[in-house]
Structures are given as C-alpha cells and as structure tokens.
Amino acid sequence: MTSKKRSSPSLSGKSSAAEYLSALSHKDALARNVVGVNGSRVSSPSTTPALSIASSSMYTSSSDDTEIAELVDDGLSFPSVPPTSEIVYTTRHSEFGHCSNEAYRYTPHHDPSRPVSGHVEEDPPYYILFTTYISYLLLIIIGHIRDFFGKKFYPKDYRHLMPFNGYAALNSDFDSFYTRRLKTRLDDCFSRPVTGVPGRTITLLDRVSEDELNTFKFTGTKTRALNVSSYNYLGFAQARGACADAVEESLNRYGISACGSRSQGGTLDLHVAAEALVARFVGQEDALITSMGFATNSATIPALVGKGCLVISDEYNHASIRFGVRLSGASVRMFKHNDMKDLESLLREAISQGQPRTHRPWKKILLIVEGLYSMEGTLLDLPAIVKLKQKYKFYLYVDEAHSIGALGAHGRGVADYFNIPPHSIDILMGTFTKSFGAAGGYIAGSHALVSRLRLRSHANAYAESMAPAILTQIIASLSCITGVESSAPSSALTSSHTVTAATDDSRDYRGPVPASCLPSWIELSPSLRSGEEGRVRLRRLAFNARYLSRALIKLGFITYGHADAPIVPLLLFHPGKMSQFSRLMLERKTPIVVVVVGYPATPLVTSRVRFCLSASHTKEDVDLVLDACDEIGDLIDLKHGSGDRWPLEEIKRRAVELVEME
Amino acid sequence: MSAPSSLDPLLTFLSYSLLKVQDIFFQLPGSAVIARYVRSSHQNDPGRTALELILVVFAVRTLLQSRTRTDRSASNFVKLTEKEIDELVEEWVPEPFTAPLTPAEVHELANLPVIQGASGPKPKLVNTGKTVLNLASYNFAGLAGNEQIKERAIETLRKYGLGSCGPPGFYGTIDVHMDLERDIAEFLGTESCIIYSQGFSTVASVIPAFCKRGDLIVADRGVNFAIHKGIDISRSNVRWFDHNDLKSLETVLESIEKERKKKGGKLTRRFIVTEGIFENDGQMLDLPKLIELKQKYKYRLILDESFSFGTVGRTGRGLTELYNVPATQIDMIVGSIANSLCSAGGFCAGSRVVVDHQRINGSSFVFSAAMPALMAVSASEGISLLTSQPSLLTTLHENIRAFRLILDATATVCPIQIPSHPASAIVHIQYRPNAPATLQVPTATSHKLSLSPSKQSNPSSLAPRDAQEFDIELEDKLLQDVVDEALSQGVLITRAKRLRGQEPAEPRPSIRIAITAALTKKEIEKAGSVVRSALVKVLGKRR
Ligand SMILES: Cc1ncc(COP(=O)(O)O)c(C=O)c1O
C-alpha cells in the first residue's frame, strides 16, 4: 500500500515490490503501445484500440460504428476461436461473447440434503489482519497531520469544512474525514466514466489526475476493457438484437415518457402488460412496477408496516431497504448475516417480549432478506426461513434484486433455485437493472396485497411511472428467458388492468408465457420464442459463475459466497491493495475492469474485489480473469486460502470437471 | 502483590508472539518503511505512540461490536423459560398483512384510466376506447412524442443499449450523464449538477445528504410528500412556517435566532426547505423575498423546483428566470427531469461542493443504478429545444391563461376555489362549500384567526393554527364525479391522488389539471369549457 502513496515522496527507499510494480506496469503499457508520461497514460488517437468489430455475418456491414479505428486485436474484439461457417452468431462479440462449446454450460440445481450456508468464511493469517489495522491507522494519522497543516497553509481549500461567514460547515472536517483522507486515495478506482454498452466489454474514458486524485482530466482516449463489474447477469445489455429492436419500435410508437405517476395519468397499456408478465414470471398473482429499484423498496416498505410493527432485517441488507424501514416508523432488529440460529433466537425473543416497555404483542413482524447478497455472494437460506415462517408466523419479504434472472434453472430466482413454491413468500421484490438490462423494480405478491400497494405505495401516487422503452426491454428480455407459447398470435393487447394474468392454472409457473401476453408488435426470432436462447444464457451464466469461484479457490484465494452465485467476492483485506489490484487489472495487456469495495460498504478488514459474471462472458474471458488474478495475487500477496491448490494451467484444462464437482 | 508472578507466563507469551509478528511483518513488502516511520515517530513523540495504540484498540472495538447485538441486558427484559416462549409463540396472532380493499377502493382501481399507445395531448384510453383531450399527464412544454427527441433516443439506444447496469460509482457513469449534468448546470446557471434516476427519490435523498441529526430545518407546512419523507429521514430538528407565508417564516426565523442568542451553543447547519410551485396546490413562492430572508438569517436554501423547472420563466429555467434571481443564490435547486422534460429522473444543481458531496452521500444516487443513457440524452435534447424554441413556453403560458380565464369565471358560479398561482401549469380545483351545513362541526379555532392575527401557529407542530376544515370523503367523491363527468365529455383530468392515512399533513382534496403546450388554444378552451360544465353539473346545485 505504501508503495503507491503519491503523497509520500519522502519514502525514497523504494521497496522492491514498488519497483517491480512500476516495471510491470511499464511493460504492460509498452505492450499496448502506449507511452507512459508522469505515470499517466497518453496515447495518440491512432493507437486507440478498435472499439468494436462486428463479427457476425449479420452485422459486418453495420454503419453504426463510426468509431472503428483500426483492427487491433486487443484480445476482446474477436473470439479466440473463429466461428466456423455453420455457426452464425447474432450478437456482437464485444457485447455478448461468442461461445458455441456446449461443454461450457451448466444447469444449477440445489441438493436439498446439503445445508445452504455450508460455505465457511475463511480467516486470513493474523499478520494480514495486523498490517491491515496498521495501515488504517497510518492513513488516519497521516490524514490528521495533513488536515492540521492544510488548514494552516491552505485555508481556502478547507473553507467548506469550516464555519464560514455565519454558516456552519456544510460537511464538517470530522464527518468528511474518511472520504477526504481515505477514499480519495482510491478515487481513480471509483466512478470511472464509461461510454457505450456495458456488456461483455466496456469502454472507459481515460482520465488522469494532476492533483492527487482530487480532480480528473480526460485525455480524450478510450480503453476497451473486459467487464466483470456491471450487473449484466444474463447479458441483456445489448445495443443489437431482438430486445433492442423491440425497444426501438417502442420508442417510435410510444415516445420517451409515460408522462406522470401511475395513479395520476401515467398508466399505459404497456404497464399492465409488463406487470402481468412479471407476475407470471415470478409465480405470484399480481405485480406492481416502479420506475426505480431503490424506490421500490424505499416507497413500499413504509406502505406495509408502521408503528407497532417489527421489521427483522439481515445486517447486510441493501441501503434502500434500510431507507424504507427507517421511513416506516416500525421498530427494527437486525440478525447476523444469513445466520438462521441467530434469526430464530431473535424471533423467539421478539415474540415473547413483545413491544419494548409496554410488552404488548407486535402487530406484525416482517422479515426482510435478500435472495443474493451483492457484497457477499451469499445465497438466502430459503428452505430454513420458510420453515421458521410456519412456526413464527412472520411475513416474508425477499429482495431479489440480484437473484431474479440470475439464479435457478429457469432464472426465476431463489424460489426456483430451492424449488420452493413462490406462494410461500409473501412479497417478492426485484429489480430490472441487473438481469434484464433495463431499469426499475417490481413488487409481486397476492392480488389483494398488490392492489393494496397500488393505493398505498408512495411511488405509485407520486413518482414518475416507468418509461415505455424500459417496459419494452423488460417484456422482451423476460419472454426471451421464458420462451413464448406457440399459440395463435393475438392481434392486440387484450388484458385490461384489472385482470392480471392469473396463475390459477395448475401448470408450473416456470413454463413459457402465452403469446397473448406480449404486445403484437414485438417480434422475436424463433430461437427466442422457443426459449432456447434464454436457456443458453442461463446455463452459460451458471457455468461462468461456478468456474470462476471454484478456480479462484483452487488458485489459493479466499473468496466468499455460494458457488452458484454470479457474484464472486475475492478478499483483499488491505485497504491499499484495493487500488493496487484495480490499477493492475486495468493496466494489463487486455485490460479488465473490476469493482473494489472496502469500508464502510464492508467490515473494516474485509476489503474485497467483486466480480460480477455474465452470460455474455466466454470461458476464455474467465480464463483471462484467472490469469490476471494469479499474477497479481502472487505480486501483492493475496493467496491465503487453505484448501488444496491446482496450477493455473490445470485449472483451465479441467474447467468443466471443476464446475461439475459437487 | 502477587499479580506480577501470575502475569509472567502471559508476558512471555506476549513477547514471543510479538517477535513472531515482527518476523512476519518484516517479510512484508513495504514493512521496513512502516517500521521506520513508527520508530521515528516514537522518538519524536512517545505520546503519539500511545495515541495510536488507543486508536487501534478503538478500531478493534468498533469492529467487534456486532451490529446485531440484542438488548437482553435492558432492565425491561423479562426472563422466560423456553416452554413459556414456545407458548407465547404459539399464541401470537399477527394482524393481517394488509387490510382488504373496500368496494370503493376496488372501484377506484378498476376505473383508473389506462392509456393505449403513446401518452400525449390526445391519447386513446383502454377503458373507453375513445380519444380524449389529456389534461392529466405531465406534458407541460409539449415534448412528449417529439420526433427529434425520439430520433436521438434511438441513436443512443443503438450505441449504449438500454440499461446502465450499475450504480454511478461502479461503471454506471456514462458520458451522456456528464453531458446532461453540464447541460442542466449551464441552463440554470449553476456551477454544477447531479442527476438521480427518479425524480421522486431525488429530494428525499438530497435533504438527508446535508441535514443530519442536530441540524435545523425550517420548512413550509404545505411541502410535497417527497420533501416530508426527506425531512423525516434526516432526523433533523424541524420548525414549520405557514404555507407560502413568508411573514410567518420571518417570525419563525426571528424566534429561532432569539432562542439561539439566549442559549448560545454551537453553530449548527440551518436550512430552509420549500417549493417553487407547490405540488399540492399550485401556489408560487416569492423567491426574491425568500432569498432576502435566507441571507439575513444565514440559512441554506433547498428549493424543490419539480413543477416550476421547465414551466415558468421565458425559456423554462424556473423561478430564477421568472424573478431574475441568479441561480447561484440558491444553495440546492432540486428539480424533476421527468415532469417537464418528459424523460425520467431528477437533478440537484448547486455549487461543486454541494454536488460532489451528494456523489458520496446521496443515498438514492449511490445505491441505485444510473439512469438509462437514452433517458439522459432525451433530457439534454429537451433542454436544447427549450432554449432554441421559446415558443414552446410561450404557448404553454398562453394556454394557462386561456384555461384560467374560463376556470376563474367558473369559480363565481360554483362552490370551488382555485389556490394555484395564475402562472402555474398545474391547476388545483378544490370544493369550497359556502353553506356551513356541509362542514363538519367547525372547531373553535377554525374561524377565529382573522380576529386574533397576533397568535401564531406553533412552529414545532405541522398543524397550522387556522387549519381548514374539510370532509375528505365527501369532497373526494364530489370531485371524482366531476372527473368522471369530464371524461364522459372527452376530457381526461384527474383527482390529485393522495396517500390518505400516510400523508403527514392531509392536503385538501382537489382536482389537479396539467396544462400542456401540445394542445392549441382552441382545444384548451374547449377542454376548459368541458371542465366548467362538469363542475357546474356536479357542484352547481350545491351552492
Ligand atoms: C438488494 C438491492 N435492492 C435494491 C437495489 C436498487 O436497485 P436499483 O439499482 O434498480 O435502484 C439494489 C441495487 O443495487 C440492490 O442490490
């Protein structure tokens, strides 16, 4: 960590690691034909890597890519195995990777005889913890020293932190200390501006900082990088293909906006259609769509519980849930992350003790959990919770923001994964930002409950309703996952908003949707209608997820989370290693962008890098990530796992075996 | 003392493990530097080493303190046996999750208008299959369905796809977002701007990003629901002033100032929170007067321009343009991108410090996926249309005038009142029975205000002294009858839908009309006379 500190030129005795690091990045820079000046990357426009090469027969003549510079093989634009003449890809490799090898597929299934949270969170050696604390300490001390002198010598820079002219500081120096003195050091790793589709690859706008990461300047160049950061589980972030075509048609038909809130002049036929589809998709009677995922939680929870109610919440629940719970005025208790014992003892205590002081029984108890935790990669222990629910009579609210579409053999989320009837969950909430390449969120539940929410949800009355283009993306991507029943195509939208697609038929909700549920102007190719494409996406995602998480463990890293989860956190521990890891990944010959997270989003010592896999990645992409992790892991000392290790080449060779291991 | 001897083995163990740690530590890259630093700092100032150690202990303590700690130690805790707990669990019957719908509620949901196809000035309804004149949807400047915007949106779709697939911090910051932020900042004349992906969630995030526990908020009693939620979650101290009454504001500010002088204490952050055009009734703020007060008493101003941005001022820059006040005099201008730009999302414009602060502290900015690229581009395009075609706003203003002419005349023949400002693009119509017989029992205070104007409302309470009395159920029903009648004559209007029971201060029931520039003056006049005849038909005889 210290080796990267720009602010300490006094550390003249460069440690060997630092020298090695800079030599390495220099080498990588050379390899990319980029000249390093003052540590910043400057490259002439002519060396900009090719932004995108349409490699399918369908798009070779696409005129939309005016930015194709020259055909540089940056390792991302072409598949490593060129397609044969029989295979016709309908996607762009840079958006959605070409992978025709049927072996690189996996169908996830849950073995009921095995415990869900069988995963052990491994502790690192003590010296790691020790040095981690030391480095926080150093950062804090140096930060205070800099503040002390800074206030003396550069009072102008501190004005907004000090009372001024009769106004209290907008943000006191104490409150903002962490941000200014710790987070700023890694600021080049956050909020990196991008352009283009956040698909399999993503294009960064290169920037440099000349003032210790306080401000950035754009160099005007771009870098295309492998994207293991965006929430794009099923790879629907695409500017080409059936979904984008449907969205274009919708923009032509509907324009941009629905012009108002749901209950005040902003309800379109598309809202009704999309809600019916979503309800079917998740196996509930009815669903309500909101234009923002965050607001789906924050504006719904207060409509469900209030004073005299108790909310029991997992300690790692998302900020939007906490926001909503705080607004509701209900009492809150938290239980240890995914710990069913702790939950049960909390339930016993809460019910037996009743409300504080008065000991009156709680009006209702609402348990709010997430299906897949976005920082941990852990899976909800749904079977255990459903058992507890029968005994303790609480209501259950599952936030499936990350699990819907991404989990289960049919992409229907945790209930699908564990083969539990969705009706045993009172409220299924989810977002469309992650698996559907769209935006917004939904609440699904019984007809009575959702109707009540239509009247009580804050968002329904006051927030703008979801835009028609986004609804179309949802309808198209969702029917691509389910497939469409091959009945006679209906002529028009027939459903009225009071009649939602009921799930009264006894068939499995995980089947294809009837064609009458789709607006007639949405055209889907046969492979989409049959659900074939959807199945491939689900199985590719499942393969990639298992491959990466298992391979990282075999390489000796400490990771968290469930093997079937498409989120794989790799533990870094040291705050300084976050920026090192992120920068080294970006400086590789084939750049990779990663998300690093540390305190306060995670506990102090467990800073981590989080990989989000996608169906759009190919096995070779995962191999690239493994190569990079292996090298960087050795370099900055990350391999502290205790399990048995395999050499990298063996891992890559035996990938399929690794994935299929129990 | 026997302590030293019993401590001996512990000490040897400690020094042994310390050595071990030291060994490992020095194998680490960069450890020598740390060691040198610690050593030298210790020589200069041993006190600091002690301080650092305390910090370590503190850090470890924070870490070990579980967030899930239970309060079993509380004095109020009743010890129970497992069997007793089992019985209590067995006995406990929770209330139903939600109350079943009443027939009226079922009816309301079933009759919600659903637009078939595109929304706009003349959409077709699914419910009736008929085309209507639309005075319900927000399309103030008439940008809905604009071909130029559509074209740009489609281009953007083909370059960026739809979703942003991540929050702004994690590769969700797209170049078009930065463009839109710059466009809005330039349009308004502020240093900087930040965009949120939903208008409604914007102000509810902006307020708690700045106002913390112990800070002071002085707010209008009539602010919209989202502002109330933002104030709730901030947990700041709140003082209320009478709705759109700057005299009342001044009294409140004065009394706070007096109190502060008396008590002393440290300077806290102080904010005034109000709206440009009030969502709940369409009244308009006297901005210059407010700026004067805020500067005199040194408050920061959070101004929600959701309904004034894009509707008032020559080119739609909002109240600052209307009153010719530099936007930089308002600390945080919050507005909606969805309402008048017909896109999606919200923004907060202000100084760079104000904006950057939100990039880390605005909950719904940090923890939510960024806005889809094509929405941002549509909004940018909308702004450029507003600036390049001032006729959009002129038409809107003319239409408002034409509509108000008809409506204001109706108020003389019907028991209605129109609280909205004559320039407001949203027009609220309230039922105002003259005959006291239709009132609920008037409370003693309700009519005395004019007699004793010296008595002020209590600033700590949201309820004003001279609360209007109204019968929500009755008025809602009558107004809904007006809405239904207008619809049957081909004009779509809506009641202002409230979250009854959840509203911090129940606003008086009203019909909310949204004027648009997309209809011609003739059509607006026609719609106006339909609304008038519906009002007369339903309410005329109740005079
Ligand atoms: C569990 C959870 N809920 C809700 C949200 C908010 O969703 P959105 O980004 O669509 O606003 C997120 C997104 O980060 C999430 O992880």
Automatic annotation (TrEMBL), chain A:
Residues 226-478, 530-628 form the Aminotransferase class I/classII large domain. GO terms for biological process: ceramide biosynthetic process; sphingosine biosynthetic process. Its main location: endoplasmic reticulum. The chain crosses the membrane at residues 126-149. It is found in: Endoplasmic reticulum; Membrane. Keywords: Acyltransferase, Endoplasmic reticulum, Lipid metabolism, Membrane, Pyridoxal phosphate, Sphingolipid metabolism, Transferase, Transmembrane, Transmembrane helix. Pfam families: Aminotran_1_2. Signal peptide: none annotated. It is an enzyme of class 2 (transferase). It catalyses: L-serine + hexadecanoyl-CoA + H(+) = 3-oxosphinganine + CO2 + CoA. GO terms for molecular function: pyridoxal phosphate binding; serine C-palmitoyltransferase activity. GO terms for cellular component: endoplasmic reticulum; membrane; serine palmitoyltransferase complex. Its cofactor is pyridoxal 5'-phosphate. Pathway: Sphingolipid metabolism; Lipid metabolism; sphingolipid metabolism. Gene3D superfamilies: Aspartate Aminotransferase, domain 1 (3.90.1150.10), Type I PLP-dependent aspartate aminotransferase-like (Major domain) (3.40.640.10). Its EC number is 2.3.1.50. Belongs to the class-II pyridoxal-phosphate-dependent aminotransferase family. This is serine C-palmitoyltransferase.
UniProtKB/TrEMBL annotation, chain B:
This is serine C-palmitoyltransferase. Signal peptide: none annotated. Belongs to the class-II pyridoxal-phosphate-dependent aminotransferase family. The keyword GTP-binding does not apply. One of its GO terms (biological process) is sphingosine biosynthetic process. GO terms for molecular function: pyridoxal phosphate binding; serine C-palmitoyltransferase activity. InterPro entries: Aminotransferase_I/II_large (IPR004839), AON_synthase_class-II (IPR050087), PyrdxlP-dep_Trfase (IPR015424), PyrdxlP-dep_Trfase_major (IPR015421), PyrdxlP-dep_Trfase_small (IPR015422). Pathway: Sphingolipid metabolism; Lipid metabolism; sphingolipid metabolism. SUPFAM superfamilies: PLP-dependent transferases. Residues 131-527 form the Aminotransferase class I/classII large domain. It comes from the Eukaryota. Its cofactor is pyridoxal 5'-phosphate. Residues 448-462 have a biased composition (Low complexity). Keywords: Acyltransferase, Lipid metabolism, Pyridoxal phosphate, Sphingolipid metabolism, Transferase. Its EC number is 2.3.1.50. One of its GO terms (cellular component) is membrane. Residues 444-465 are annotated as: Disordered. It comes from Sistotremastrum niveocremeum HHB9708. Gene3D superfamilies: Aspartate Aminotransferase, domain 1, Type I PLP-dependent aspartate aminotransferase-like (Major domain).
